[in-house]
Amino acid sequence: MIAQRYIRATDKAVIICVHREELLKQASNTIERITSIKPALITSDTKKYRHSSIYIAMVESLKSRLNLFDNVGLVIIDECHIANFNKIHELFQSELIIGFSATPISSSKKTPLNKFYYDIVEGQQIKELIDMGFLSQNITRAPSGGVDSSKFAIKSLTGDFDERQMDSEFRNTKFVTNVVQQYFKYCYGEKTVIFNVSIEHSKEVTKCFQVAGFNARHLDAESSNRPSSVPGFKSEREEILHWFKVTKDAILNNVMIASWLG
Q: What is the pLDDT of residues 28-57, one digit of tens each?
């Protein structure tokens, strides 16, 4: 709606920046449904000039294709707390920039968001969105005998747990099998997304599920580059995400790749 109002008021174009390939399609479908404008996608496959009042792009694709679009007055950045988007501010210094984030704390402590934005506008809070029916109330269960996070060192630069320590601990056999046991206890037969610590950890959890007879698969960042063995799909990633969408009891293991699913 912001893009639509801006275009009507200025007759200039809008660029929406996203950080996942799948979000290009989601954003494109939503924009076209709400505004009746068919966006032009700026991807690694874009070779020729594209004319549109709304463009949707990923950072690296956009950075090397600035000559393939023009007349931009507004840049909208989705998940603007991701440090990779800081490059956008270097590319568009005279245009208006609006960043969106549900977690408005920069992923890099060296570059807080107030270095790039003049003001912050708060939307409805989580409880309000739940009451309005836009979000579901979460139900959190913490099984006894889980990993003791107090053992992990915290990186001073990012404030995150040490990934090597986490990987070593979570790949312990008892914790891998515990995931399968808790799935069986709480959500047997339901479509499930599991976030793991590392790629190897995710593969081990997937194998444990498969040995137990469950319908589980692993997804990682490199799956976009691996061609699919299933006809009709360009990449392994595209095929796995389609499988997850159409399979009722699908269990998808990943490491922060499926955080946009919902």
A: 999 999 889 999 999 888 899 988 999 999
Longest dimension (CA), the chain: 60
d(CA 151, CA 251): 29
| Phi-psi region at 156: left, alpha or beta (left = phi > 0; alpha = psi -120 to 50) | alpha
The answer to whether residues 216 and 192 touch, using CB atoms and an 8 Å cutoff, is no
Could you give the strand order of the β-sheet that contains 54-58, starting from the edge strand earlier in sequence? Answer: 40-42, 54-58, 13-18, 72-78, 96-100
Cα-based angle 92, 73, 115 (whole degrees, multiple of 5) = 40
Is the backbone of residue 17 left (phi > 0), alpha (psi -120 to 50) or beta? beta
Residue 158: per-residue pLDDT: 65
Rounded to an integer, what distance in angstroms lies between the CA atom of residue 242 and that of residue 236? 10
The whole-number pLDDT of residue 113 equals: 87
Q: Give the 3-state secondary structure of residue 85.
A: helix
pTM beyond 0.85: no
pLDDT value for 207:
97
Decide if 79 contacts 94 (C-beta within 8 A).
Answer: no
- Please provide the average confidence, as pLDDT, over all residues in the chain: 89
Phi, psi for 4 (deg, rounded to 5): -60, -45
CB neighbours of residue 87 within 10 Å: 13
The burial of 169, by beta-carbon neighbours within 10 Å (0-12 exposed, 13-18 middle, 19 or more buried), is given as middle
Distance between CA atoms of residues 250 and 254, nearest Å: 13
Residue linked to tokens 């995150």: 160
